[in-house]
Predict the structure.
Amino acid sequence: MIARRVVPCLDFRGGAVVKGIRFAALRDVGDPVALARRYAEQGADELLLLDVAATLEERAASRATVAAVRAAVGLPITVGGGVRSAEDARALLEAGADRVAVNSAAVARPELIAELAREFGRQSVVVAIDATRAATPDAARGAACGGFEIVVRAGSTRAGLDAVAWAREAEASGAGELLLTSLDRDGTRAGFDVELLRAVVPSVAIPVVASGGARGPDDFVEAARAGAEALLGASLFHDGDWTVGEVKQALAAAGFGVRGRFVPASVRPGEESAT
Amino acid sequence: MSGVVLVDTGVANRASIVAALRRAGADVEPTLDATRVREAARVVLPGNGAFGAAMAALRSRGVDDALRDRVARGRPLLAICLGLQLLAESSEESPGVAGLGVVAGAVVRLRDGGRVPRLGWGAVAVARGAAPRWLRDGDAWFAHSFALREAPRGAAVATSDHGGALVAAFERGPLLACQFHPELSGEWGGALIQRWLAEGAT
């Protein structure tokens, strides 16, 4: 079995980690390398680095920040922000990313997902989906939008796409994972949007990462119960209210496998071969 | 310190592998030169992307023969992720494409047992009766949609579970092959790389 992952998210702008509420009112919360080290020591399973200014500034995510964090920690790193092409992705991978996340550019040009999957393998391609509760009921958009709608360009633009439909299209195009962020919950510490998870998780077969709204260990347990394979936290870790370890303890107590708390596989290959 | 040749097929997360090898004290030389791959003291074969594309990249430079030659002569090789799969005879990912055939068996698609790609930390357990030199029980970072299910003959195997046991890693002589990413598997993975570097020389 694969453990549920707890993934601290470092939104950054310039050389600083920032955090806001619903993608706005960003405040500085620390140095990327120092925070990455802290979370690695706390038992983080992966790190997510998002250059939140990249898309709006029409450039790809900062390679310098990626390289600095890569040199500091031996954990998997996923990087997103402003990736518009395979070349952008390659530059980030060469700087030290293990996987690359795409968002606005993939909504504008869905073939980008297939191009990245072909070049780097599906497991290296994360499609980040920022969703909000649809402001207009289905009637206004025909049957296109269900309960959740996609936003792009760091939450600034409604894309008029239904979240579940887009999740399915991203999977079919070659996404290896979906990073599902609730714009409504981002930075609010109101808990993950479990309804959003329950809408998207059953509609795809690839892993889904829950993001937006985490305030404490119970929220992580709830999102895991809703089927999220990985659980992202930012404010609650940056502000020192909870550690990654405390969250993983809560997940383990609720019966979820976490790294370091496994029953090892006891079968030998050949004995239970699925070939 | 010790020099390592990294087979450079344009692998996605090369920087992470280079960083991990350097942390373990190795000098790393990325190359696709068949002679270097044949003769270097230690070689790392990483891999990402598709089985067929990777085999084509190796064949285009004669690196496939150089790798087979290394293994036949008992020269140290560390294969990672797709690198392990390339050692097999074939893969369900790219029907009709021959692998390196260093070990018997075909790589198969992961189906039941969890979401695919299989992404994240999975438990690795040394198989009963196996006496590996480097492999230990632990948790490792996996990122794959295909796997080898049959234990290679004459190899010490460690397994992980996804709808039944899969080959998480195996070692045979100075060959160490890992389906997981030791370079991303924290201190446990770093220590594994260090053990292989320390004892890998013939």
Observations:
- The longest strand of chain B covers residues 118-126.
